[in-house]
Amino acid sequence: MAYLELRDIHKSYYLGKEEFPVLKGINLDFELGEFVSILGESGGGKSTLMNIIGGLDREFEGSVTIDGQLLDHKQEKQLDEYRRGTIGYIYQSYNLISHLTVLENVMVSLEMTSLSQAEKVKHATSLLERVGLAEQIKKHPNQLSGGQKQRVAIARALASDPQIIIADEPTGALDSENTADVLRILDEIAAEGRLVIAVTHSQEVADHGTRIVHLADGQIDDDRRLREAYAVPEHDNRMTDRPLPASASYRNAYKHLTFSFWRNSLIMLGTAIGLFAVMLFSGLGNGVKAYINDQVNSLANPTAITVTRYQDEEDGNSGIGQTTAGSGAVDISKQMISDDQMKQIKHVKGAKKVQPGYQLAGAKAKLQNQDYNLGTVQTWSATYQKKLVKAGKVPGKNEILVDKKTVAKKFNTKNWQSVVGKTMQVTWMTVKADGRTPVTITKDLKISGVIDAGKAGTANVVNYQTVRSAYKEAGAATNALFATVRVATPDDVKPFQKRIAKLKGDDNKRLYSAVTVGSILDTINTIVTLATNVLAAIAAISLVVSALMIIVTMFMSVSERTKEIGILRALGESKKDIRRLFTSESLLIGLASFVLSVIFAYGIGAILNAALYKIAKFDMIQISFGNVVTTLVLALIISFLAALLPARRAAKLNPIDALAAD
Ligand SMILES: Nc1ncnc2c1ncn2[C@@H]1O[C@H](COP(=O)(O)OP(=O)(O)OP(=O)(O)O)[C@@H](O)[C@H]1O
Hints:
By secondary structure, the chain is of the alpha/beta class. Helix content is 44%, strand content 21%. Strands 13, 14, 15, 16, 17, 18, 19 and 20 form an eight-stranded mixed beta sheet that branches. The protein has a six-stranded mixed beta sheet with strand order 6-7-8-3-9-10, sandwiched between helices.
């Protein structure tokens, strides 16, 4: 049984429905150690036959048996393996990969062997030395002469130690000197015990082989032996081949990226800008949220909770500041917290300190014959931060801390501190002990200091005892209107709020509401998050543009590299390997864009922060680790999706058509 057997090979091409038969029943046997030349007229089907032997063509009739094993052309995997391990191809037009160096071109077929990286380099270098190219290994193909290119192609064909070398007009483009060189090398290859099948038009070339097969009209019309085939030496250490590892695809993709560096840099820049915008807006959202938190917490104590009586709809939803004293219609005792209830609140788990508080309704003041509308007047509680007191001190008995904007500055615009120490007559309303009858209270209070509630509004603060004793004197209800509860840490606020909301009175109705800085912040934060997400989503639209750019680049890359795809397929790479070549290139673009975008985001973020710091005294852009990770995931998803279609198209290319591409 011969090493390679072709039986009854028929092949036709079709133009529409019209059939053009090219091979009409080829029967041939080949042995290892032979150097067979295939001669025949142009268009006679020589290349077609080589593609069938080489495992590139699957659309034919007949059988190819290799070393006793029938090749199943339906099984692509088996064919990939066959091309990888058994076949080495040499073409008239060299078919080198232009963006790889001479050494790398030879290394491509070694990627599919089990050699270590160092062994691959050593082996490729020794092959290039053998074909006389030791000096040229770092050059790119376009820096070589035709003869040199063909020798690189021979070294590449030999690299994976194949049994069969197919050379399709290997000397067609060479001068006589280079032709002689190449023929000598091919003869040496046959002498090593390999089967060399060379297609040629030249009788002179054909005469160098051990046998000439002549093809005419789709059939063999002559098969002549010129000399004995070479004896096959024992090959005990044949190289073992294996599928292309993923790392090789990534390396190849990286080399291609750096080869077209400027074009790819622009694509990366475009993608990076989109990613950067997403990251910057997210960072701005974080910054604004932190800024608001900081501002609110600096005005009010985050561990203080204001507890009021719960008002359901029927009772009229009047919280602090809307005391209905004077209307007579509503029993405001329902809005008050009795001493017993105060004790009950004290016993709720988490309460560290509980302070009763009053709010003075409709408070007006007279200071040196000038009337003031006081707005909010409350008793001092833990909600206030001491740093809000801008002059003087916290009020003691019969003292008042007045608002900077509405009282102190109106009293004396420039020297507003001068109000401290003056006596102010304050009038407000409440109800008698029956909870209904209105009563007006007037007190002379000494101004202990000035408070500035900032943008949060106005604040006038009196001492709790001052109000309580005034109420006692006037026979008014003395129950507090609210209680200020301190908890240990801001994290204890929410659990406390929940517990207090659960407390029920005798009528099984909810007793208390709790307002905290946190609950106000929650609302603000929700709005800021929403706004940030909208901004980030708008920025994300630019990512769609980025994705389109990557898709276009990848399609361009596929059409530029069509020939390379054919070469890689001929060398034994599978469809999957080709797909991965393009997805890895796209993922590398995504990854590089991500790195760029992080640099932009942190760089420009720092510049913006420096500029805004002058205004807000706060880092307005705070890009979190989570933002960075999200951006990375986005970048990878986009680049992966963008590569899907182009990679699919590349993988689907017919290797023969791809090799024929210009
Ligand atoms: N993809 C194709 N579709 C249609 N016809 C094709 C295709 N490829 C080759 N042919 C035709 O098949 C015939 C054989 O082509 P092939 O390339 O095998 O010939 P060849 O003997 O190698 O020719 P040459 O010596 O000029 O290279 C030619 O007539 C060619 O036009």
